[in-house]
Amino acid sequence: MSTFGRIFKVTTYGESHCKSVGCIVDGVPPNMPLTELDLQPQLTRRRPGQSKLTTPRNEKDKVEIQSGTEFGKTLGTPIAMIVKNEDQRPHDYSDMDNYPRPSHADFTYMEKYQTKASSGGGRSSARETIGRVAASGIAEKLLSKFSNMEIVAFTSQVGDVSMNKNPLDPTFQKILQTITREKVDACGPIRCPDPKLAGEMVKVIEKYRGDHDSIGGVVTCVIRNVPTGLGEPCFDKLEAVLAHAMLSIPASKGFEIGSGFQGVNLPGSKHNDPFYLDEETGKLRTKTNNSGGIQGGISNGENIYFSVPFKSAATISQEQETATYDGENGVLAAKGRHDPCVVPRAIPIVEAMAALVMADALLIQKSREFSSKVFA
Amino acid sequence: MSTFGRIFKVTTYGESHCKSVGCIVDGVPPNMPLTELDLQPQLTRRRPGQSKLTTPRNEKDKVEIQSGTEFGKTLGTPIAMIVKNEDQRPHDYSDMDNYPRPSHADFTYMEKYQTKASSGGGRSSARETIGRVAASGIAEKLLSKFSNMEIVAFTSQVGDVSMNKNPLDPTFQKILQTITREKVDACGPIRCPDPKLAGEMVKVIEKYRGDHDSIGGVVTCVIRNVPTGLGEPCFDKLEAVLAHAMLSIPASKGFEIGSGFQGVNLPGSKHNDPFYLDEETGKLRTKTNNSGGIQGGISNGENIYFSVPFKSAATISQEQETATYDGENGVLAAKGRHDPCVVPRAIPIVEAMAALVMADALLIQKSREFSSKVFA
Amino acid sequence: MSTFGRIFKVTTYGESHCKSVGCIVDGVPPNMPLTELDLQPQLTRRRPGQSKLTTPRNEKDKVEIQSGTEFGKTLGTPIAMIVKNEDQRPHDYSDMDNYPRPSHADFTYMEKYQTKASSGGGRSSARETIGRVAASGIAEKLLSKFSNMEIVAFTSQVGDVSMNKNPLDPTFQKILQTITREKVDACGPIRCPDPKLAGEMVKVIEKYRGDHDSIGGVVTCVIRNVPTGLGEPCFDKLEAVLAHAMLSIPASKGFEIGSGFQGVNLPGSKHNDPFYLDEETGKLRTKTNNSGGIQGGISNGENIYFSVPFKSAATISQEQETATYDGENGVLAAKGRHDPCVVPRAIPIVEAMAALVMADALLIQKSREFSSKVFA
Amino acid sequence: MSTFGRIFKVTTYGESHCKSVGCIVDGVPPNMPLTELDLQPQLTRRRPGQSKLTTPRNEKDKVEIQSGTEFGKTLGTPIAMIVKNEDQRPHDYSDMDNYPRPSHADFTYMEKYQTKASSGGGRSSARETIGRVAASGIAEKLLSKFSNMEIVAFTSQVGDVSMNKNPLDPTFQKILQTITREKVDACGPIRCPDPKLAGEMVKVIEKYRGDHDSIGGVVTCVIRNVPTGLGEPCFDKLEAVLAHAMLSIPASKGFEIGSGFQGVNLPGSKHNDPFYLDEETGKLRTKTNNSGGIQGGISNGENIYFSVPFKSAATISQEQETATYDGENGVLAAKGRHDPCVVPRAIPIVEAMAALVMADALLIQKSREFSSKVFA
C-alpha cells in the first residue's frame, strides 16, 4: 500500500509519466516552522544527473506545499506536497515494449495488475521516491527540534570496494559519531567519506559504465541523538520498522543493524554491550554498541546504525538474452545512457525513510509517556 | 504494537510469568478444516529443551483453540488460541535484579515503560513467540490448500561455519528446491541439512557452551509454490513486509533476500534474471533467481528465499563487568544453564512469520483480482 | 473486523458456543493500578437474568486477566482477558434450525461466510460484547485517573414512554450533570432515572412479554469531565468514532449527538452555543450545549451526550410466518423465554464503547500535545 | 485522521485558504475506465452558489487527476486528485477574528492545535469535503460496474417540514425503490422529491434567510442493488462504518438506519422482517425492510437506507451575544451573505461517503470469497 506510519502518516502517489508525484503527510504536530526551503535540499540531493552537470538545475523537482501550513508554520492538518513531472506523456517504447525487462518490475506489475503501464513497472520507478523524500523534510525538522536528532547516510561499499564496517572497530565508530551530510557531499558525487576508497569506487563504476553494465553497493546510515524508549514491541520493534522502510526502497536487497551478519561470529561475551554510568548525563550507557542502538526493539540512546545493500541497476545497454511477454526468445538492449550505480542517489532516500520511521516512533511513544505523570 | 497484518491479522499477548500466552487471528477465511492438530507440530518444534531430553514432553506448550471453529472447520470469525504458562509466578531475581542484563531488553523496557517487570524484558522474551507460531499453523493451512505453498527454514550458519549461499551456485539452488521440514529435522537438533557442516556447527556450539558463552548464526528460509502477484507496492513490497516480520523476531539482526549483501558485487549483466518460457505451464519464468522470487515488491512465481542472522544469546553465565540500574560498577553472571545458540529454535519462528506475511499478501491480492473479471 | 482503536486497541473474540470469549487490549499505559476487581462490576451489570434472580450469581461471567499486569499494575504490554463459556457445546436447534430467524443475522452470516454456525448468527450474539465490556474497565480506569472522566448511560425511552430529551430543557441538562451509575441502578432493573417513567416502562415491557412479543427503546449516555481537544478530524471526528462504536452494538439502529434529530428544527440563532468566560477556571465555556460537547469533531470541554435507539428483540416466541433457508414457507416460534427488551442490558455496553472511544482519542491527542512545548 | 477505508483507502487534504484541496485514493482495482468526466458531476452538484446563479460556473472546482490512470484506465496504483483553491490568501478577519464563532470549530481547533488558522476551523470547513466527493466518483464507478449499485440521497426534512419516513409506509418504500439523482435534481435546488413539500421547504429557508438566520434538516439516502455479505463484524458492521462516515460530515448530528429512532415503538412481531423466496432470483428476500438492508452488520440484499440530520448553519449575520477568545463579552455578527441551510448541498457529500464505505466493504469481502472455491 501507499501509506506508511501510524500517527506520523505518509501517503504517496505518482509514477514516471503522470502529471505529478507527491504525498500527503498526516499527523504533523502544529506550530512547527516549515516552508519549502526545509524540503528542497534533500529533493535536490536525490535528483538524477547531478554529477554530470555543472549547471545548477534548481528549477527541477521543485516541491510545492499545497496545504497544512500558514505563515510558515504547520497547522496540525495534513500537508500535501506536489512535484510536477516534466515528461508527462505515456511513452512509446516500441520494440523494447515487447520485453519485460529482466529484474525489473514489468513482468510482476503485469501479473499483479493485469495491465501494462507505459512506464513498465509503474510505481517501481525511482521517481516514486520523491514523495518520500519530500515528506522526510517534515519529519527531520520535527526530530531535529525535539532532540537534535541527526540522520546521515553514506556509501560504504561499491562492488567489492568496501569500508571496514566492523562495529568493534574504533575508526568505524568514530565515523558514525562524526559524519555529517556536508562531509558526505564533500567527498564528491560518490558520497563515500573515505577519500581513498571513494576514488576506487569511482573507478569501479566507470569500468562498469564503460562495459554498458552496472554495479551495486551498500549504504550505511547512522541516527544520532536518539531518545531512549522509541519502538513498539513486539511486532513493531524499531529495527523491524526500519527494515520494512529500507526494503521498500527500489533495488534494496537487505538490511542489517548493529553487528548484523558479521556479528554472528562473535560470542556473547564479546557481543554483549556492558553498561556504565555516563557521569555527565547521569544515565546508563553502553561501552560497546554491537546492538546498533536498539535492544528488545526499543532505542537505548546509543547511535542507531544500519546498512542496506543495493543491487546493480537492472537497466543496462548491454545485450541480454531473454524472452518477450509472449515467450519468444530474443535479445534486449536498453537504449540511451543509464545510471550504472544507484547507490549514491539512494542516500537521501535511505535518510528519508529513516526519518519517517523515527518521527512516527517518537509520536507513538509520546502518547504513552504522559501516563508516567498521571500514575506517579 | 502487538498486531500484525491487514486482512489476515494476528494479535498476540503474553510474557514469561503471566497466566498464559496466545493470540487472536482475525480474517481467517471460513470453511477451512482446522483443529489443534494442525497447530501443535510447529509449537512442538519451537519448544525449548528438545535436544537434551529423551522423554517426550508433549504435554507442554499445548495449544487450545478458544473460538472461531466448529466441528473442525473455521467459521470466518476470530480464532483465539491459548497456551498456558507453567511458571506463572513473578520471579524473585534477588541480586541479579539490580543489573540490567547487557544486550537484553531490561534497560530499554525500563526506559520505555518506566516499570521493571519481573521478567525483565517483558515481551522481549522468546516465550512471546508462541502466539506467532500458533497463528502460523492457520496461515500455513490456508497457503497449502490454496497453492500447495511450502515454507522451510534451516540453519545455514553457526559462528563461522557456513553453507555456501551464493545464489548462482547450483547446489544451493537445489537445496532450496528440495529441502523439507522432515529433511531439516532429520539432520538432528542443529537443523542444518548439510551433515558435514551440521557436525561442525554442533562442535562450535559445544565449545561455547563449555566456555559458559554463546554464539550466533544464520537461518535461511525458502517459500515455494508462490503465486505471482503478491505484495503491495510501494511501502508494503513483499520483501519489505518479510523484513519487518523477520526483524521482529527476538535476537535477529538483519535480513537479506535473493542475492542480498553478497550480490552487490555482481554486475547487472550477471545479476539480472533473464526470462524464458516454461513450456509446461505456458508462463514466463526466470533462468536465474538472484531476485529471490520478488521483483518490484511483487512475487514473480520463483522461489522466495532469504536469510536472517541471529546474534549470540545475551544471557551467559560467564562473568560480565557492567553496571547496576543505579550506575554502580559490578560483575554479573547469569545463574543456571542457558541456551548457547538460539538459531535452531528460531527456525519454526522464521517459518511462522513468513507464513503470516504470505497469508496476508494473498488475501489482499484476492481483494483486487475480482476486478479482472468485472472489467474484462 | 474485530479490532477497535488505533493506540488504545481492543481485539475481541468468541461466540456463543465456543470455549471462551474475551479480548486483548494493546496500548495500555504502564504503571496503572489494575486488577480483575476493576473489570468485574460492569461485566456483572451486563449479565443476563439479573432482574429475575434473587440469588447472586457472582460465579458467572468471571473475567481472568491473562497477561500485561504484575503485582496489580499494568506493564504497558498487551492485556488479555478471558471469560469462560458455560455452554460450550454447539447446539442442536433441530426444527428451528431450518429457518433463518427473521431480523437475526442467521441469513446474512450464511451469505457472507457460506457456513451455518450452530449459534446461527455467529458473532452477532450479545455474548460477543463481553470482551468489549472487559476492555472498557481498563479504559475507564485510565480516563478516571486522567481527568476524573465519568461515563453514565441510562434508559431514556421504552416503546413510546420517553423522557424529555430536549437539550434546551434545564431538567434534562440537570440529569446529564448529576446522574451516576449508582442512581441509575437504584431505579431498579429498568435503569431509567425518572421513577414515574420507570414504572410505566416496566409495564410496557410486561405487556409485550405477556404477548410473547418484544419492544425497543433508547439509551442516553453522558460523558463528563472531558478535556478539550479530543477527536481527530476530518474522518475521525469524535462524534464519528462514537457513532461507529454505538452502531457496532447488536440491535442498535442509530445515534444522535447533542440536539440530534430534533435539533434540526432550531434556527441557528437558538441552536448556536454562545461562549462565556468561566471565572473559576479561566476557560471559555458555552452557555447552552446543543453541540453535545463536540464542535468540528473535537471536544470543547462541555458534557458529551448522545442517544442510541435499540430495536425490539428479534427472538420472540410468537409465531411468525416466514421461510426456511430453502425457501419453503412455514411458521417459526422460538422456544423458551426470551428477553422482551434489550435496552437495560445495553447500558453497560454503551458505556463500554464510549470508554474505548475516549481512551483512544486521549492517547492520540497526547502524541500531539508534546509539540506545544517543543515549538513554544 | 485524514484517511478512510482499509483496502479502498482515501486520504484527503486541504482547507479553505491553501493552494488546493484534494485526495489520494489507494487500492483502486486496475483496468477500470476512468477520467475526470466521471468525477466532475458530483463535484459540480456539491458546489456552492448553484441555486442563485443562472450562469454556468463549470470552470470552478475542476478536478485534475494527477496519477494512477493511463489512456483512460486505472493502473491499480494510487490516484491523486487536485482541485485548486481560488482564494488562496489567508484571510484577515479583523474584528471578527477575536471571536471564536459560536458552534463553529474555531475554539476547539485552537484548543487542540494551539494555533489559530486564518480559516478559523481549519479542516472543519465544508471545502474539505471536495476530496471526498472526488474520491467517490471512483468508488461509484466500481460499484456501478460490479453490481449496478446505485446511491441516491435527497432532502427529506427542512425545519419542521418533513416527508413521512415510516419504513412500513408503502409510499416511502416506493420512493426508495425509484428515486434517482435526476429526479432529485429535477425538484429544484431544494432536492426534495415531493413537489408540495419542496415548496414548503423553500419557504422555510427563505423565512430564515430573511431573518439573517439559518435552519437545519434531514438527508435520507438509499443504496440499491447491494450484494449480500458486505460488512465486517463485530466492530466494522456495515451500519457502523456508514454511521462513522456520516458523522464525519460537517454539521451532521446523527444517523439512523432502517426503522431508526421511530422503530423502537414497534414490537418485534411487527418489526421483524420475515423471509420469502423470490421466485425470480431463487434467493431469500424479506417481506418488509425495517432492518434497512443490514442484519447483524452484514448486507442482506435489500435496499440500504438511512437518514442524517444536519443542524442549522452556525454562521449567521444576526447578532449573537458571546465572548472573545480572551473571555470578554461582546456581540458578533457575521458579515456577508451566508448559506441559510446546508442540507441541499450535503446531498452529494452523503452519497460520496456512502460510496466510499460500500467500495471498501466490497473489496474486503472479495478477499474472503475466494476461499469458498478453495475449500469447496
What does this structure look like?
Four copies of one chain form a homotetramer. The first copy, chain A, contains nine helices and 18 strands. By secondary structure, chain A is α+β, with helices and mostly antiparallel strands. The first copy, chain A, has a single domain, classed as Chorismate synthase AroC (Chorismate synthase, AroC fold, 4-Layer Sandwich). A five-stranded antiparallel β-sheet of chain A has the order 1-2-3-7-4, with helices on one face. A five-stranded antiparallel β-sheet of chain A has the order 9-8-10-16-11. In chain A, strands 5-6 form a two-stranded antiparallel sheet. In chain A, strand 8 (150-158) and strand 9 (161-162) form a beta hairpin. In chain A, helix 3 packs across helix 9 and helix 7 packs antiparallel against helix 9. Chain A is globular and about 70 Å long. Chain A starts with a strand and ends with a helix. Chains C and D meet through strand 1, helix 2, helix 7, strand 11 and helix 8 of C and strand 1, helix 2, helix 7, strand 11 and helix 8 of D. Chains A, B, C, D: Pathway: Metabolic intermediate biosynthesis; chorismate biosynthesis; chorismate from D-erythrose 4-phosphate and phosphoenolpyruvate: step 7/7. Chains A, B, C, D: It comes from Hanseniaspora osmophila. Chains A, B, C, D: This is Chorismate synthase.
